[in-house]
Every structure is written in structure tokens, then in C-alpha cells.
Amino acid sequence: MTNQRLRIAVLHGGPSSEHDISVWSSRGVLQTLREAGHETIAVFVDRSGRWHLAPLGDSGVVVGEGVDFLNAIGSLRGHVDLCFLGFHGNYGEDGKVQAVLELAGLRYTGSGVMASALAMDKTVARRVYAGVGLPIAGAMELSTAGLGTPGAAQVAARKLIAGLGLPVVVKVPTGGSSVGVEIPRDEEALVASLLRLGADAPTLLCEQFVSGVEITAAVLERDDGSLESLPIVEIVPKSAFFDYESKYQTGGSEEIVPARISAEATAQAQRNGVMAHRALGCAGYSRTDQILRPDGSLVLLETNTLPGLTPASLLPKAAGAVDLSYSALLDRVIAAGLRTER
Hints:
Layout: E1 7-13, H1 19-35, E2 39-45, E3 51-54, H2 69-76, E4 82-85, H3 96-103, H4 113-120, H5 122-131, E5 139-143, H6 150-164, E6 168-171, E7 181-182, H7 187-198, E8 203-208, E9 213-221, E10 227-229, E11 233-237, H8 244-248, E12 253-256, H9 263-280, E13 285-292, E14 298-304, H10 314-320, H11 326-339
Parallel strand pairs: 1-2, 1-4
Antiparallel strand pairs: 2-3, 5-8, 6-7, 6-8, 9-10, 9-11, 9-13, 11-12, 13-14
């Protein structure tokens, strides 16, 4: 890693469906930074939203009752060189924490407020993709107002089937790690999905199911600010799709890098990843998930602005394929965070 010894706060946890993954990711980040000689503070946000600052602690360490975020930010302000964002999901990856850090004058890793918010909302991200000509699946946006009864859900389901066919991919637009994603394959299952996912979400994104090879394209900033496309990773889930368990449970999926796809498809997938990164305004690094159809065409699924950094995560595997160690990967992420003007 960089020879410069830095004071780095690793922010993680939070009241998100991806709380546990954030804690797991940050454990490796903290250990690697400390081994490199950096001074670190583990900043754990518990599920209730209380912040716990542990200068010598591991990820997930609770310090007393914790403090509110204003006191936590005040403690960090002027005392750290950088905040390393280890959050995932709709707390810390959606732009809100980024906004607070910017107001406090604290530097941080990853994308800024607008890019984080755009990418986190899959419905809005689709509009950005379409605006620059990136390929997306057919979809319908569904308000969940008045959708709380089986009869209303059945009417909605029939409209979706008429417009998109079966199966349908039903998503909570601001979910992550495939949390809040279901693929019902008949009308009865679709009704159940609409009732279940719509109970706690104002809208649902319903997409046409696209079959093919699941791949992901990671983008990483070089030291001069230019973008590097890492090797494409092919994902072979053991379940019906690359869900939460497939992503994070040992043996839940097989990740093959480089992907077993043509050179032409590889190049196009990498171009799509860079285009998505730029269109959303991402910074530092990102990872764009795609489907390669049997006819050779590609469809974008989503862009992750804070990709996972666990041993099972896709970004470290893509980096490793070009002999970029975990430590060197973090070094690149940190360097980008230090030079990015917000």
C-alpha cells in the first residue's frame, strides 16, 4: 500500500438489510490497513443508527451506548485523513452519509452524493442508462398504493403478465445484494411477490426476465484518474439466480474469471461498465452487473457504487485476475478518495 501513513476511519454497519455484509467486508479492510501501518478507527453503526468509534477495535465493535451521527462526525472532523466507506445498501450507499461527510469537510472513498443516489435507485438508474444508449430490459413501474389486497394484487399481476410475460423480476428499487428481489414464474406467485415486497415499499420495479450468462464488469480508477476495466467475472449461481445466499454463502455460486465469453462480448461488457460508471458520475470504483443473452447481446442490471470487499466478493476476484492484490486494491480506492474533489 501507499508509503504515506494515514489516519483512516472505516465506516460500516448501519440499519440496512446488508448490515452483516458490511461488517464482514470491513473486517478485512481494517486488518489490511493496520498491517500496512495506517492508524485506523473502526466506526460501527448499529442497527438502531447509533455510531460506535473504536480506535483499536475490529469491525462491529459496540462502544457503550454509542453516539448520534452528529457527535460521531464531530469526533472524526479534523482527526482523520479519510473515511473509508464500508457500508452497503440503503444506509451509506445511497448518498445520505456522503452528504453529511461533505458538509463536515471529510474526505471519503467511492462515489459522491448524486452518483450514489442515482445508482441506488434502480428505477432512476435505468433512465440514466437509457439516456446514454445502454441496453436495459423491458420494465413497468408499479405504485404499491392500494396494492394491499389479493384482489388488487391480482389485477396488477395480470397487467404485468400482459406487458412483460412470465417470469417477471420484481424488485424493491432501492434494495441491494439481491435483497428485495423475487422472480415469480406464475400468476399466483406473482401476486404473492407483489403483496410481500410491496408491503414496505412505495413502488416496485417489475422487469422482463432475461435469460443468459450473468457477468459483472468492475471499473477502477488509476492513479492518473483514468479508468481501468478489470476482467469480466462470470457468475454461476447454484440457486435460481444470484441471490443473497449465492453471493455470500460458501459454495453458493461459482465465480469464473475471466468469464467464459467471447472476446467481443468481453470488450462490450467492459465498455458498458465504463459507460455506466461515467453516466452515473461514479468515482473511485464501481461494478456493473449484466446478462449476456444467447444471441450475444447484453442487458444491464445495476451498478454498485460500493462493491463488496469480502473474500467472496466479485471485485477482489476481478482484481486478483490481473495480479492486483487485496492490499493494492484498497490502495487504489484510497488514492482515488484522497484526490477526488467533491
